[in-house]
Request: fold
Amino acid sequence: MKINFLIAATAAMFFTGGTALSQQSPTPPAPAASTSDTASASADVCVIGVKLQAGAPPGAPVLPPGAVPAPVETAPKAVPSPAVVKRPQPQGQGKSPGANADKAPVPGKEAQPKPKDLPDEVSESCLNGQIVINVSSRPYGYKIGDVAQIEMEIILKGGALVDLDPLRQGKLAIDEKASNQFEVAGKPFIRAGMADGDRAFDIVVPVRTFVPSPAIGFSMQIPYAEAPAAGASPVWKTLSTPEYTLLQYIEDVKGFKAPIVEGNVGGAVPRMPAAIPPLTAVATILLLTWPVMLMLRYVNRVRKYEGVERRAAAWLALQRVIRSGKELGYGDTHYRRMAEVLRKYLRAEWPGLEGMTLPEIEQLPESPRSQALKSAFRQFDRVLIEGGKLSTAEQSELIETIDLLVERPLFV
Reply:
């Protein structure tokens, strides 16, 4: 027991003394940067597009190429102690296991590309500078389907020609094999003018696209031709405008399970209501029926009475008498002929009507048709037997009574 106690006390004194000595030891100075590190750091610094001389101290003047710098006195450099130099840790390794977890790539998920510094205007020239095309717009801040206003300036020199009719028709691609990811979203604005004595066109084209891409380039095709010779026709060719890149925000369409496809881009097919076919058939039948009815009426009026229906023959005979009375004036002959036609036609309904007198007709059973028959024959007897005359109102009433007794046939 005593031996163990002595050993423990000796160990405690040893550790206490070592800790005190370590606290009193001076801290070694930090290592100074080497000459090569200073030179590489100063070589990557640019000021207003001018590169600093390698190894020059901060604030030193920039010497022109080929000049010899004056010697500069520098303090002696301290040599670091190898015992305190620390090795750099590998990238991504921190003190805690999850320190750089947000920088680690997630399997199966690609990072959204950062927007680039895009130019506000791109230019292109062809035919040795005879045609100059400047394209500008706002290259950022769009979502899928937004309308972008593409501004274009075309300057023509030396008699060069361009054809803008395809653009007025909404065509961005002229070649059948060429494909364009944009479509015209409105009527293009085209204004002709002059620029420094040359012909120029100011064009604004509203376009849009539904391609889910963060960066998409716009370009279109325009027919052009060199200045033709006198009396010759221009030889048209096709040029493509410089590509202008537009940035789109596509986070809204990420994570869709169904793939985004172009879909049906054809014209909308008009829908036909279900009632249109039967109504068309009915209208066609009615239109074809009227000529047939007119033809039958004409045939029934002009052919011989032997083949005509009894009602049609009686109606035609009465109409001839009425027409003659209106033209020449009603007389005894007209009333006598109307009475004969009625007796002959109505004998099938009232047998013996041809030989009946007015008192016998008055004895017929009561009905709407018999009352009309009695009224007509009272007026006939008033004219033919009593020698009286009918007024215009009484003649109209008699004709209405006859039309009630002998109705007009359908095909007459």
Notes: The longest strand covers residues 198-208. The first helix runs from residue 2 to 24. The chain is about 30% helix and 15% strand.
